[in-house]
Amino acid sequence: MMRDIMAKNKYLLILLFGTLLNSIAAHAERADREKPIVFSADTSEAVNYETKEATLSGNVIITQGTMMIRADRVKFRQNPDNSLSATAYGKPVSFRQKRDDVDEFVEGYALRAEYDGQKELLELFDQALLKREDDEIRSNYISYNTGTEIFRAEGRFNSTRPESEQTAHDTRVSGQFKVQEEDRKRLAPKPGAELQTDAELDKR
C-alpha cells in the first residue's frame, strides 16, 4: 500500500521559483564560484590540499561567496572550475545562497544534502524544506537547480525511519506561494472609498 502511494506521488510536482518566462531571470549569485572556499569545523577527519578534498565534522561551516553550508559532517571537494561539490549530514543541514542581482536568498534544509557546483544542483533528502522569502516547499526529496531556479519535489519515504513506521503523510508534498505584490495592490481597497450607513442609504 505504502509503495503504491509513493509511486503515485513520485515526480508529483515540477515547479518554478520565480517567473522563468521573463526575459531577464534571476539566478544564483554567479560571482560565488570566483571566490575562495572557506571552511571550519571542530574536527578535520581528512584534508588533502593536493586533491582539494576534505572531510570535516562537528559544527561544520563552509562558505564560498554568498553560499553557506552548515552541517554536522561534510565531505567536499573543489572542482576544476573552482565550484564546490559536497555531501552533508546534519539535524538539519542548512544551505543558503543569494540570488543573482536580487536582494533575496534561497534556503534549503534537510537531514542530508548533496550539492554539485558544476551542475548547479542541490538535492535535499529527508525532512526537506526549500524557501525563498515567504515561498516554501516541503517533501522528503527536493532537487533545486541554482542556475535555472527550477525545482522538483517528490513524495518519498523518510530513509531515516523503517517503512513499517511511516504513514501516507510522509510521502506527501506541501508548500505555499506568497501573494505577489501586483496582486496585493490590485486586491487592496481603493483609497477614499467609504462605506455608507443604512441611514444614509434610506435618505435616497
Give a description of the structure.
With 204 residues, the chain is mostly beta strands. It has a single domain (2-178), classed as Sandwich (lipopolysaccharide transport protein A fold). Helix content is 10%, strand content 47%. A hairpin with a 4-residue loop joins strand 3 (43-48) and strand 4. The radius of gyration is 22 Å and the shape is globular. The model is unreliable at 5-27 (pLDDT under 50).
Which features characterize this protein?
204 residues, lipopolysaccharide transport protein A fold, mainly beta, single chain
**Roughly what fraction of the amino acids lie in strands?**
over 45%
Count helical runs.
3
Please provide the ordered H/E string of secondary-structure elements: HEEEEEEEEEEEHH
Report the strand count: 11
Name the CATH superfamily classification: Lipopolysaccharide (LPS) transport protein A like domain
Second CATH tier, the architecture: Sandwich
